[in-house]
Amino acid sequence: MTLESTTVSTRIFKTKWFAAAARKAHIKDAELCKAIQEVVKGQADDLGGGVFKKRIQKNLYRSIVLAKGRKHWVYAYLFAKKDRDNIEDDELEAFRKLAGLYAKKTEADLKRELMDKELVEICHAKEI
Questions:
Q1: Helix, strand, coil fractions of the chain, as percent rounded to 5
Q2: How far apart are CA 116 and CA 41, in angstroms?
Q3: Can you tell me the distance from the alpha carbon of 101 to that of 97, in angstroms, rounded to the nearest whole number?
């Protein structure tokens, strides 16, 4: 499955927390959008339950992306490879639950979170 073959409703977001972390790490939205294309092509670690780990910024950082149902892709967590090897089992379980919650969000829910700046939309399938 490629992004080009997904529906126009496929949208990519980053959480408020992730946006701040990415800004500090000098990671641009264009790189994040490109990384989602790679995730869709299977070039990421599928951690199950709608949770993916994707290496970004020349392998210096790891991002946790939530995409249960692959309708909405949400960058949720970022860490430097030099700071930690991986996320813990309890964190993975929490991300899986969060992925399930994002999969159930309606357009109204997303709109409210965008207005409240809890989510930032970084690209849309037709823009990639």
A1: 40, 30, 30
A2: 32
A3: 6
* Residue 28 phi, psi (nearest 5): -85, 155
- Rounded CA gap, 31 and 47, in Å? 21
Quickly tell me which residue has 């972390």 as its tokens.
21
Give the chain's end-to-end CA distance (angstroms, integer). Answer: 14
| Per-residue confidence in pLDDT tens, the chain, 128 aa | 344 444 445 789 999 999 999 999 999 999 999 999 899 899 999 999 999 999 999 899 999 999 976 678 999 999 999 999 899 999 999 999 999 999 999 889 999 999 999 999 998 755 44
Question: Exposure pattern of 77-110 as b/e (b: 16+ CB <10 Å)?
Answer: bbbeeeeeeebeeeebeebbebbeebbebeeeeb
Which tokens in the block code for residue 77? 């967590």
pTM for the whole structure? 0.87
User: Is residue 99 a contact partner of residue 41, using CB atoms and an 8 Å limit?
Assistant: no
